[in-house]
Structure formats: C-alpha cells, structure tokens
Design a protein that fits this description.
mainly alpha, two-stranded antiparallel sheet, 4 strands, globular
Length: 450
C-alpha cells in the first residue's frame, strides 16, 4: 500500500480521487501551453534599452516558477502562473513609450501593485469582490474564457488572421502553421473522443513531431520546417541588469498612482476571470458560485507579482492556459508543482522548449475552450436581466481581446438592467448588493477617465 500522506499534506492530493500520473501529465500539459510566454516576453521587452532579452527570459522563467510553486504549496490548486500577456504590453508600450517613463519606473509600479494585492487579499477585500459577482456571470465568465483561449489558439496558429475589411478572417489552411494546426486538431479531437488519458499532451507531442516535416512558408531560409532545433542545453543568463531596479523618487506622483491603479485593475479582473473560469471547469465552484480556498489562490498570485518585479519582469498572473491541465485531469497542487518544475528546468533547456511551435499547442487551446463552454447551459437565457449581461460577458472577451473588459461590462450591465427593473418592482433591487453598486460605479468611472 503506497503512502500518499506527504502528497496530501503538500498538495491536497487524495488517492481516492486523484492519480499521480494524471496530475504530472496535466502539469506538463499546462507548461507546454504556457511556454510561449518564455519566448514572447523577452521579445516585447527587447524594445527597451537596458533590458537584455536573455535576462528577461531568465526573469520570466523564475517568476513563473516561484509563483507556481507558491500556488502548489499554499493554494494546492492546479493553476499555472507567469508574467501576463497584455500587462507586459502595457508596461512597455504605454508606460515606457506612451508616457515616457523609464522601465525602472514601471517596474516600481508593478512592485507596489503586488504589495497592494497582498494587503487586499489578506484583508479578504479581494474575496469580497469576487463573491459579489452573480452566479450567472460566473457561468458566463467560464464560457467567455473558453472562447477567448480558443481564439488565441487559432490566432497563434494562423487559422485566424488579420483582414483589413472585416478585422479578422480565415487563414490559408493548406500550408504552414495553419495546416499543422488543422492536422493537430484532428489528432487531438480523435484522442479526446477516444478518452485517451493525457490526450491533450499526447496531441501536442505528435503535432510537434509532424511539424518537423512541414515547411514554414514565412521563413527567410527556404526549406525551413515549422519544428527545428537550434540547440538544447545552455546556462541561464544573469538577471543582475534588471533585478530590483526600482525607482523610488516618483512613487507619490499622480502618474505613478494611475499606472499602479491600471496594473492593479487589469490584473485583479484578469486573474479573477481566469480563476473563476478554470475553477468552473475543475469543479471547484459550489452551487452558490463560491470557490473554496480562493483567498490562497489570490495570495499566490500577489506573491508572484512581487517576486516577478524583484526579478525584473511585469505583473505575474494566473494563466487561462491552466485549463488545458485541468482538461487533462489535473485537480491538485501536484499539477502546479509539476508545471513549476518544468519552468525551473526550462532555464537550462530554453533552446529546446522554444522549438515547440504555436501550431502544436493551438489544438489543445481550441479543445479546452470548447469544454469550457459547458456552463452556459446553466444560464437562464429567457431571463433577460441575467442573460443579457451574461451574453455581453461571453462575447466581449474574445471580441475585445480582454477578460477584464468582459467582466466589467457584464457587471455594469447586470446592475443597470436590474436597477431599471427595480423601478417597477423593488424586489429586483435586492439582487444588487452594496458591493456590486460600488463596483459598477468604479467600472463606469474607469471607462470614463482611463
């Protein structure tokens, strides 16, 4: 009889419900679908003088590893964390280029934001905010994130491309990344239908191998395949040029207040949406829409942000790609621990992991996105006071390319519609808690002034 007491204590593992192999496979799957950030983040920050992309790569991997380790041991949930997309673009292109501040100024804002997050989490204010979201919107958030990550997968693989007339259009499915993604989608869907354990990861690996035989039409060198190696092992670069490079002389300025608030705002609702959506998929949400242990999940996120700022990178947040690991059966902190170990090992295998093309991970995002649509069946679509805000939440996430905008507009719509209904029947006003009134007003002010 195997002794699982250590796994139970550390990660919340229950041998009657969970399987070690499944948890490990789920953790690797989550890592593979998140790993793109290790290549994207350095490329974004390379636009800034004084932030070498090699140092940013190391900082990104360290931030992801530390934050996900904290998630594994503290929250015991199967969520992966890393510097967030969108937040890194705001750091570089808005704060540094748009507002004209140094990257040290922006890094200081991230650090302050993380400290505020820790305080909000420790005082239960952050949990109070998420518990104020109506159950119908929580169902909508899960479905909206499903559409969002499926859209990301399609976009990364070239299945969906830019179209000047219609904004987006269908890519060329007969060659390159789009063709590989189509092949991978057929393989991954077949594995899913056969209920193959770890099928999401297996689909990624098979697609990765097939990519070695498909030419990349966008490559500068003729004959280059979509999957290719530039080496395998190397020592990680030092983070000394960017670590703890804070600028304290302007922390009381109005611009610092605006930047910190914006970081805080985006991170809070992106994380909130991700946690609710992935928790829906994992079965962590009870009938009242509450999530057990959510305060520890938020604390792990906040600690990750502070650690990431010290390493020299932008806000660390919980990733929607965690849903791929959940889709592979991950339910405990052991999944997050495995993901964190992978991020740690990636420090030495950076040349290898970047060889996995986006087309190989796109099918996983598409399939899991489909799975996350299930909560929409729990929404009362004939009750327009509930269904209209829910629909706006679902549709705006992929269309506006923002989880937080979907949540914010959905909350505003819920308060406005139930407030209008309350004019004719006061019982509808009871559905709007004081917290929701406050949030709706703050959200409206956000769109007016930010």
């Amino acid at each position: 009889m195997k002794d699982y007491s250590l796994l139970t204590k550390c990660f919340g593992f229950d041998p009657a419900k969970h399987d070690v192999r499944t948890e490990i496979v789920a953790g690797i799957t989550t890592f593979l679908t998140m790993a793109y950030i290790l290549a994207v983040n350095p490329s974004i920050f390379s636009a800034l003088d004084g932030m070498p992309n090699t140092a940013v790569f190391t900082a990104t991997a360290l931030a992801a590893a530390v934050a996900t380790f904290v998630m594994a041991f503290l929250a015991k949930k199967p969520f992966g964390l890393a510097p967030g997309m969108g937040l890194n673009a705001f750091f570089v292109f808005t704060v540094c280029f748009g507002m004209g501040y140094t990257w040290q100024f922006a890094l200081t804002a991230v650090f302050i934001e993380g400290i505020i997050f820790i305080i909000l989490t420790a005082t239960k204010i952050r949990q109070l905010i998420i518990n104020a979201i109506p159950v119908s919107l929580k169902h909508a958030i899960g479905a909206g994130i499903g559409l969002f990550i499926a859209f990301i997968g399609m976009q990364n693989a070239g299945l969906i491309v830019n179209n000047d007339s219609t904004l987006v259009g269908l890519g060329d499915l007969t060659q390159g990344s789009a063709l590989l993604a189509v092949i991978g989608l057929v393989i991954s869907c077949s594995l899913a239908m056969l209920h193959i354990r770890g099928g999401v990861l297996l689909g990624i690996l098979i697609t990765f191998v097939i990519g070695m035989f498909i030419k990349d039409p966008t490559a500068e060198v003729a004959g280059t395949t979509l999957t290719h190696f530039n080496g395998i092992i190397g020592m990680p670069a030092s983070i000394k040029p960017i670590a703890c490079q804070f600028q304290w002389d302007q922390i009381w300025s109005l611009d610092m207040l605006i930047v910190v608030f914006t970081f805080l705002f985006i991170d809070m609702f992106d994380t909130m949406g991700t946690v609710v959506g992935v928790s829906q998929k994992a079965g962590f949400v009870d009938e009242q829409g509450n999530i057990d242990g959510i305060d520890r999940v938020f604390m792990a996120d906040a600690i990750g942000t502070v650690a990431g700022a010290c390493f020299g990178t932008s806000t660390t947040t919980t990733y929607v790609e965690s849903s791929t690991g959940v889709g592979s059966g991950g339910r405990t902190g052991l999944t997050a621990f495995t993901t964190a170990v992978c991020f740690t090992l990636s420090l030495f295998f950076s040349k290898l992991f970047v060889a996995i093309p986006n087309a190989a991970t796109a099918p996983a995002l598409i399939i899991v996105g489909m799975m996350m649509m299930q909560p929409v069946t729990k929404i009362d679509w004939l009750n327009y006071r509930e269904s209209i805000p829910a629909f706006l939440t679902v549709i705006l996430m992929p269309v506006a390319y923002s989880i937080s905008d979907g949540i914010l507009i959905g909350m505003i719509a819920f308060v406005v519609l139930n407030g209008i209904a309350g004019i004719f029947d006061h019982q509808f006003l009871k559905k709007i808690t004081p917290t929701m009134w406050i949030l709706a007003i703050l959200f409206i002010l956000r769109y007016i002034f930010l």
